[in-house]
Amino acid sequence: FGDIGVGNLRNFYTKHDYIDLKGVTDKNLPIANQLEFSTGTNDLISESNNWDEISKFKGKKLDIFGIDYNGPCKSKYMFGGATLSGQYLNSARKIPINLWVNGKHKTISTDKIATNKKLVTAQEIDVKLRRYLQEEYNIYGHNNTGKGKEYG
Questions:
Q1: What's the pLDDT at 49?
Q2: Measuring CA to CA, which residue among 109, 94, 96, 102 is closest to residue 137?
Q3: In 2-149, at which residue ranges do the beta strands (DSSP E only) sit?
Q4: Distance CA 126, CA 81 (A)
Q5: Is residue 67 classed exposed, middle or buried when 0-12, 13-18 and 19+ CB atoms within 10 A define those classes?
Q6: Do 147 and 15 touch, CB atoms closer than 8 A?
Q7: Parallel, antiparallel, or unpaired for β 114-117 and 34-38?
Q8: Can you tell me the distance from the alpha carbon of 100 to that of 67, in angstroms, rounded to the nearest whole number?
Q9: What is the pTM of this model?
Q10: pLDDT digits (tens, 9 = 90+) for 98-151
Q11: Any idea where the domains of the chain sit in the sequence?
Q12: Among 38, 54, 80, 103, which residue's Cβ finds the most Cβ atoms within 10 Å?
């Protein structure tokens, strides 16, 4: 059956669609360490111990990127991040990725790992990169493409 952890990673990063919301406004609730947004179907709540960072986003329009997953009690959770909305480049930029494959270094640049944001979260890069690596190098196995066999 293989490693359950690897299977969970494969499913999380390849089977769940990511959420890419633009211009979502925080509800500006009086709770100092919390942001809350409505996506139309769900409410998203973000909490942090860093009140200074949270205050930068209070009442502002944000872009939210992440992957949601189910939690206990019909809750949904999200692995993702937020950036201030409206800070875009004129065109998308490809984010270069350094890879080591069978001991050889190569840098890749692809539309699959790209953004038009001036500031991008680590979570957005992580999600797009892992999806690309699974598609091209089969890092979690079982993608039925035959790719990745030569990488061991």
A1: 84
A2: 102
A3: 18-25, 34-38, 43-47, 61-70, 76-84, 88-94, 97-101, 104-108, 114-117
A4: 11
A5: buried
A6: no
A7: unpaired
A8: 26
A9: 0.79
A10: 998 888 999 999 999 999 999 999 999 998 998 898 888 888 776 666 666 665
A11: 4-144
A12: 80
* Distance in angstroms (rounded) separating the CA atoms of residues 21 and 23: 7
CATH class of the domain comprising 4-144: mainly beta
pLDDT digits (tens, 9 = 90+) for 43-52: 788 888 888 8
Place of tokens 């919390």: 34
Whole-angstrom CA distances from 89 to 12, 41, 85 are 29, 29, 12
Given the structure tokens 């890749």, which residue do they identify?
Answer: 108
Only one residue has tokens 């493409």, namely 145
pLDDT digits (tens, 9 = 90+) for 69-94: 776 666 667 778 889 999 999 999 99
Place of tokens 């998308």: 92
Cα(29)–Cα(101) distance, rounded to whole angstroms?
48
